[in-house]
Write a structure and sequence with these properties.
The chain is mainly alpha-helical. The chain contains 8 helices and no strands. Helices cover about 80% and strands about 0% of the residues.
Amino acid sequence: MDDRQLLELLDADPTAGMDLLWKRYGEPVRFAAAQKLDCDEDIHICVQDTFSDFYLQRKQFDPGKGSLRAYLTAISERKAIRRWRQNQQQWLAAQSADPPDDPIAVWEQQEHFRQALARLPELDREILQLKYFEGHTIREIAIRLNIDYERVKKRAQRALKKLPQFLE
């Protein structure tokens, strides 16, 4: 069964069509989400959202422009990126929330954060230091460290993704 026939099945019998869609494309969609997210719950939600959004907007898909697999994995990637950004914003907001009034608790919190940073590779730690503590842009960091812009950007993203794990 090709993509056009699958779309026809979705229109004729939505339950059977969605079952077949899940069987055929569930794993590639899950894999696309897992490339950006590390939490199983977030991955599951992303996959669910991908299939439900596709079903509701399936008329926008044109099989003549590409495969259904590529279309679904692109949706999943975008949803995963959006979810990852939301998670990062929530984490950063929690980190910058009002510090406790107790100076010892503040010191312990800062020390815990320093220890988590110390667990990162030296280059990642330096990139985060320049970006978040000294206020440099990714482009400025790339020039300063003589590293490709995209590499600095990716390392910063990966370091931010690792940091919450080290803080737990």
